[in-house]
């Protein structure tokens, strides 16, 4: 493509060409603008681990679209480093009234920076300055170098930068912004914008301005007098008395406001101008990042387009086309660049803030006597914050590299145990290398620490201590008692924000801890912690223990104030050792069974592919949405199809399902192919790689503070989403096997959420049915449709079952209609009849929504708060989504609480009975155990008793048990 052609295409897309015809132009992307636009453009989406990712998805889509439309060779994304900056030094109230970002957005900020890096785009931020200051500085530098600049943003504060050679592009309106657009907005040319803003102020950023003067009046005054200083010098000549008095009285406030809104064009650039270029992406890194978020649609588009026709070679040193060209047809085609059609799922170096303590003293402990002094200090204070450093994030196999302790705020130590050992362990002797540092032998250090870590009179405090518990358990130490600052925060604020230590430190302590990457590096240059020099290790590790203690000191009293002590003490705190032991136990996998299943799936995929090619009349890549769309709609003429801006047809699951319902076999076969391909990649192939070479078992990690409802979530690998009802899913579960001489025991709650609906809404008819042990779906059908139980048909029962479960999740008439294969009107009539018959449910649902709107959260039967940040959203769709969440959350959250109560009581109950059963997995309403074959029946009886007695409600809890050689047999 010639430069002239590229420029004309950019103009057609609405993006001004930041180019001199030689590819030297620069696009500066306002990262914050992209983030908030993306967040509000998409409904709430989460990864399987519960992390919100809707803004990450929208941001990634917008980057793709920008790269595709602009085809730029120089792009940088600019972010705010933190809220406080140099403006707060002379005006502390600057942006003081700006509301906190939505809680579900906060954990996405770091992921969005990671997304930028995955796209191999420069990621710019600088402590003490705002993103706008960096944009101003780079715009000046580029202009002085003779390069054109396009600022990609809709932020009015950046309009002061518009001038010859510097333009703006509003990605929301797909509109270029030049001097004319600035004049239309402010009534003055760009160079006078700062003076107008100084007078008018800005309530959002808490820029005071002059009371009573708006933008229109300010523009008139600046036009008449030339600039702010000239106006203030002649304020006494203003004819209007009130305006004259305001300008005289608030003259200094206007000058301060001008300093606040004037962008600094001379900040130290974090990267040289010539480094702000679009680099050839690391394809695998980008794909891995997108897959980790669950962004299947983007992954498919990027994989196909990046590798198509060899445009981007597979490997380093490629001389392929620029990334913007390669990604062009992978860009989203939706009208809103953030909201591309998709089947996606449902941190930063910054200035340190001095803590409010007399001084910070961190000590490197390298001999046993010094360690004993710290142990004695812990006995004196009765409190000891503890953190561990390892060479990996897998506690079942990680090496304990060091331990940090803190006994009071500002006083902490680091005990190195295995630094400098990796080279010798690898057998690579370097005679020029310095000798390993002086360290206490691990066994000796553990012997000294054991007494205090197991001392019931000393409270140990950790942050996500489940990880540390496993490390100490492997060294023969059962740490107790323990408080967990992460779980305290989680109990207090639930899904309102993330609960990582760094995030909480910034939120509650106004302190930014040392980033891990600052100590260990990133990417290919990242080192493990055992290779970190001791001075850096001390600063990083001791700070972790120190901050943990500070957070605990701040947050623990709130449990009493917020009346959340019972939730913490009876549900979440006791769960730490229970889940830690469960993770450490792991589950045995039959690798050969998985391998055989993978091969079987490969054969079936090949057979389906052959069928699809025969139906299409030609060969093509089934995994390519673009090629599939052309086959379906151009070659086979199966309808008109729906094209996006890239010209490719949409072939997502909803499109294929509609074609399949119309009787087009090829669509159904493609759906079959996709389902099997996902099972193969996600489970049968991936699970084999997750088998620990040390234990021979798979050790999933259960996140204790990730969901809004209190549920545990499984990650790395996720063992909670294995399909239950499909034959392929059953085969995968058959690969989860018991050790020789043992059986697997599966016990799950029967219809617990329906029982809780009956209890919480006090639906007498349903409560009676559960007490009488009736078939609840048949009983519901009898109540709703007026059909006696002895005349019940399977079809009517199926409809009642669909409504029963659909009501819990706020199903619509359209959704129920699709599920039952009936018209939406008929489905709506079913729902209406259901709510009329069970009027208590409708009353309860309305009361829950009202409570959520009033308080911002809903509450489980045991007092856990589930926050609903979108319940007051002005957008009707997002508000309706939050209302459905508000109805489901107390049900799902109460079920999660009951399961936690059962899990917490389980170890003691099994031990009291002399059972050797080990809890391996928790999958929502199910617990999986491994138990000696001779004890299986007794263990089943014990576990059922604990689960059924975990709560005493107006309806009985029923737990059903199964025993087998593998998970499928037991389930």
How would you characterize this protein structure?
With 971 residues, this protein is α/β, with parallel strands linked by helices. The protein has five domains: 3-185 and 264-275, Rossmann fold; 361-587, Nucleotidyltransferase, domain 5, CATH 3.30.420.10; 591-635 and 644-657 and 664-690, Taq DNA Polymerase, Chain T, domain 4; 726-761 and 881-971, 2-Layer Sandwich (Alpha-Beta Plaits); 762-880, 5' to 3' exonuclease, C-terminal subdomain (DNA polymerase, domain 1, Orthogonal Bundle). 49% of the residues lie in helices and 10% in strands. It has 40 helices and 22 strands. It is globular, with a radius of gyration of 31 Å. The protein starts with a helix and ends with a helix. Its EC number is 2.7.7.7. It catalyses: DNA(n) + a 2'-deoxyribonucleoside 5'-triphosphate = DNA(n+1) + diphosphate. It comes from Azospirillum lipoferum (strain 4B). This is DNA polymerase I.
